[in-house]
């Protein structure tokens, strides 16, 4: 049997059982923006392998730093002990995060980074005279697939089997252009009830909902509303972090600052699973002043794994280099030019772009029909062109690694043009 057949016999992959191509594509090597299959076929990775890969595959700088760390210290429990990579990465993160962030808590992935933030917020208020239990989130958001993260995510087919066990969340509408005032009024009304602990949001760009964008001005208003009511504002920058939106963090487009930030995906440049929840010194200190416990009830076996932290440090070196910053600007500009070309054309409902993310919404059906026939057609068209893209229903998006060249971007746009033709016919 082939590798794909051996896989197919025993492995369980996420979100693909219903997909048309029954056998997975065996990938044996990666370099730059390309992934190479067992039979030698090269695939251009147009979505950075689920939005994680920043600097291209198997980058030598990250590989060397990780190998060195593996030979020096592979792991140590993070209760009562520490190590250089954890401290250095935390220092580097605090140097670039919004300047009110003062503490770093490590976990394992994006879902747990959010889970930790929610638990921190709830325990923060549990420690106070008047505990608060309500969490507010955007109705169409995606924050992960653990129970807490599912609870604050959009409710639909994905969460239906678990819905009765998910805690109640006060959902407000995404403040898409024209709806800003409604969203603010919804948050004001819920906040006035006095029980809201936290508002968790994807800043400026809701990924899984279909790369929906909204303005920094309304997010500033929402955060101001939170702060008037003593509510903790949690920015889920799992997708938007590390340059994706054109700034190091989407929060840097804001005047106001979030109280907590959740990070993962690009944190290690797409090499190792690692999550971070940062918070202000005030949040941290509230735990110290608690007479009962003085600890946060959360911790993982692999908390602050040295290899993952080393990968994070190496990725950060690359991200902050002038080459990488120039690349970010170049991709943003090229996306903008392509967006101008197709905006307003027949068959296109909307075009959205922010930094290195570009999304086209075709005027066919709704993106909520995630596993629609159209989705499969678009997916297969891309694969036939040797490009990896994953449509969100009728929405196609690009989120390439930052090393993607102009010629490679041109290929991605070509595939989008073909998709547009397919939708028109
Ligand atoms: N938050 C956001 C905004 C995300 O996009 C995702 C993943 N798509 C998550 C959280 C969950 O991250 P992970 O898949 O690493 O658990």
TrEMBL record:
The modification N6-(pyridoxal phosphate)lysine is found at residue 265. This is Adenosylmethionine-8-amino-7-oxononanoate aminotransferase. Belongs to the class-III pyridoxal-phosphate-dependent aminotransferase family. BioA subfamily. One of its GO terms (biological process) is biotin biosynthetic process. InterPro entries: Aminotrans_3 (IPR005814), BioA (IPR005815), PyrdxlP-dep_Trfase (IPR015424), PyrdxlP-dep_Trfase_major (IPR015421), PyrdxlP-dep_Trfase_small (IPR015422). It catalyses: (8S)-8-amino-7-oxononanoate + S-adenosyl-L-methionine = S-adenosyl-4-methylsulfanyl-2-oxobutanoate + (7R,8S)-7,8-diammoniononanoate. It is an enzyme of class 2 (transferase). GO terms for cellular component: cytoplasm. NCBIfam families: bioA (TIGR00508), PRK05964.1 (NF004624). Homodimer. HAMAP family: BioA. Its EC number is 2.6.1.62. Coiled coil: none annotated. The lineage of its organism: Bacteria, Pseudomonadati, Bacteroidota, Cytophagia, Cytophagales. It comes from Hymenobacter jejuensis. Substrate binds at residues 50, 142, 265, 299, 390. Keywords: Aminotransferase, Biotin biosynthesis, Cytoplasm, Pyridoxal phosphate, S-adenosyl-L-methionine, Transferase. Catalyzes the transfer of the alpha-amino group from S-adenosyl-L-methionine (SAM) to 7-keto-8-aminopelargonic acid (KAPA) to form 7,8-diaminopelargonic acid (DAPA). It is the only aminotransferase known to utilize SAM as an amino donor. GO terms for molecular function: 2 iron, 2 sulfur cluster binding; adenosylmethionine-8-amino-7-oxononanoate transaminase activity; dethiobiotin synthase activity; pyridoxal phosphate binding. Pyridoxal 5'-phosphate binds at residues 110-111, 236, 300-301. Pfam families: Aminotran_3. The record marks 15 as: Participates in the substrate recognition with KAPA and in a stacking interaction with the adenine ring of SAM.
């Amino acid at each position: 049997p082939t590798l794909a057949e051996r896989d197919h016999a025993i492995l369980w992959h996420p979100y693909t059982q219903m997909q048309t191509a029954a056998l997975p594509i065996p990938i044996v090597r990666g370099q730059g923006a390309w992934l190479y299959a067992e039979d030698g076929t090269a695939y251009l990775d147009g979505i950075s392998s689920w939005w994680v890969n920043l600097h291209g595959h198997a980058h030598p700088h990250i590989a060397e730093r990780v190998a060195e760390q593996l030979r020096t210290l592979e792991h140590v429990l993070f209760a009562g002990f520490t190590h250089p990579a954890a401290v250095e990465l935390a220092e580097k993160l605090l140097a670039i995060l919004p300047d009110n962030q003062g503490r770093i808590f490590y976990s394992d992935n994006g879902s747990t980074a959010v889970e930790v933030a929610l638990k921190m917020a709830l325990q923060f208020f549990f420690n106070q005279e008047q505990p608060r239990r309500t969490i507010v989130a955007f109705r169409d958001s995606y924050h992960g697939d653990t129970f807490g993260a599912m609870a604050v995510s959009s409710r639909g087919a994905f969460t239906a089997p678990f819905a009765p066990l998910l805690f109640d969340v006060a959902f407000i509408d995404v403040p898409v252009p024209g709806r800003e005032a409604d969203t603010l009024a919804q948050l004001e009304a819920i906040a006035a009830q006095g029980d809201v602990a936290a508002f968790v949001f994807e800043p400026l760009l809701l990924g899984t909902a279909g790369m929906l964008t909204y303005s920094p001005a309304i997010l500033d208003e929402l955060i101001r509303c939170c702060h008037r009511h003593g509510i903790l504002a949690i920015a889920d920058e799992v997708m938007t972090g590390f340059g994706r939106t054109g700034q190091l963090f989407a929060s840097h487009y804001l005047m106001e600052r979030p109280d907590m930030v959740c990070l993962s995906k690009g944190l290690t440049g797409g090499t190792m699973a690692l999550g971070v929840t940062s918070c202000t010194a005030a949040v941290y200190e509230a735990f110290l002043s608690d007479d009962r416990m003085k600890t946060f009830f959360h911790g993982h076996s692999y908390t602050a794994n040295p290899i993952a932290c080393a990968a994070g440090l190496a990725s950060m070196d690359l991200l902050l280099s002038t080459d990488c910053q120039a690349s970010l600007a170049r991709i943003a500009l090229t996306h903008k030019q392509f967006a101008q070309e197709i905006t307003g054309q027949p068959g296109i409902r909307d075009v959205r772009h922010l930094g290195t993310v570009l999304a086209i919404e075709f005027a066919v059906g709704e993106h909520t029909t995630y596993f629609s026939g159209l989705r499969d057609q678009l997916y297969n068209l891309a694969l036939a062109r040797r490009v990896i893209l994953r449509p969100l229903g009728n929405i196609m998006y690009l989120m390439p690694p930052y090393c993607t060249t102009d010629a490679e971007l041109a290929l991605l746009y070509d595939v989008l043009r073909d998709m547009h033709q397919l939708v028109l016919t």
